[in-house]
Specification:
alpha/beta, Rossmann fold, UDP N-Acetylglucosamine Acyltransferase, domain 1, eight-stranded mixed beta sheet, six-stranded parallel beta sheet, 29% strand, globular
């Protein structure tokens, strides 16, 4: 476990509580949440409308479920020079040579294998798996999903519960793999696939 950091969470919805649990399990101190819509306290911590209203922190984690909204907030924070931290659960397994970007959330039981690259702002949900030498772009969400070896997942893609991508395949930018999709061929950018095997339902 690394040293304890003081962290603010951007987003006080359910994803914010998930990230709070992850950070506290890792031994960090969450000082509060920032949310311009939800203003009631969350898990006994204050919720404010602006980051400047919180005590000094070492950095922030953006806890917003929508990939596009999370990307927009992260880019604004980076433009302000705000330090983005990673929320990594202590039970996650991460290879020593994996490259992890900024503002990444990796939850309990997730596996990040050797030679992988994980982009900024990506969420690897509980027990998600990224196989060896795969690249997962920024602002992706793997929701209890599995990506096999030597795959490429484009920016903003969503892989839903039970989704599995076979080796050496690509999932395009902002694509969605839903309905326990079993991906046996490349998924185009912005496409939606579902089923076993996965079939194109929207593009």
């Amino acid at each position: 476990m690394g040293h304890t950091q003081r962290v603010a969470i951007i987003g006080a919805g359910q994803q914010g509580e998930v990230v709070w649990d992850c950070l506290t399990a890792a031994g960090h101190e969450v000082v509060g949440f920032v949310d311009d819509v939800v203003r009631r306290p969350r898990v006994g911590l204050p919720v404010v409308g602006d980051l400047d209203d919180l005590p000094p922190v070492d950095g922030v984690v953006v806890a917003i479920g929508s990939n596009a909204a999370r990307r927009a907030v992260i880019l604004r924070l980076l433009a302000r020079g705000v330090s983005l931290l990673n929320a990594i659960h202590p039970t996650a397994s991460i290879a020593s040579n994996a490259q992890i970007g900024r503002g990444v959330t990796i939850l309990a039981g997730a596996v990040v294998s050797t030679g992988t690259v994980i982009g900024d702002g990506t969420i690897l949900d509980v027990q998600s798996v990224v196989g060896h030498h795969s690249t997962v772009g920024g602002y992706v969400h793997l929701a209890h999903a599995g990506v096999s070896s030597r795959c490429t997942v484009g920016e903003g893609a969503f892989l839903g519960i039970g989704c599995h991508v076979l080796p050496d395949l690509s999932v395009g930018a902002w694509a969605q793999c839903v309905g326990e999709a079993y991906v046996t061929k490349a998924v185009p950018d912005h496409a939606t696939v579902c089923g076993r095997p996965a079939r194109l339902v929207a593009h």
